[in-house]
Write a structure and sequence with these properties.
The chain is mainly α. Helix content is 67%, strand content 0%. It is built from two helices and no strands. The chain is rod-shaped and about 50 Å long. The protein starts with a helix and ends in a 5-residue tail after the last helix.
C-alpha cells in the first residue's frame, strides 16, 4: 500500500492538477479492486 504521505496528497488539491488527482483516484480504486478480488478468491474453495 502507498505511504501515508502519498495517500494524504489525494486531499491536497493545491498540490495536484485535476489530471493528477484523477490518475491517483484511479490508482487507488485499482489497488482496492485487486485487494478485494484477492480476498474474495482466498475465501472461495477451489473447484476440483
Amino acid at each position: 500500500m502507498e505511504s501515508t504521505r502519498e495517500n494524504f496528497r489525494l486531499f491536497e488539491p493545491d498540490e495536484l492538477t485535476p489530471e493528477e488527482r484523477l490518475e491517483r483516484v484511479i490508482e487507488l480504486l485499482t489497488e482496492a479492486s485487486l485487494d478485494l478480488a484477492k480476498e474474495e478468491s482466498d475465501e472461495k474453495p477451489a473447484i476440483a
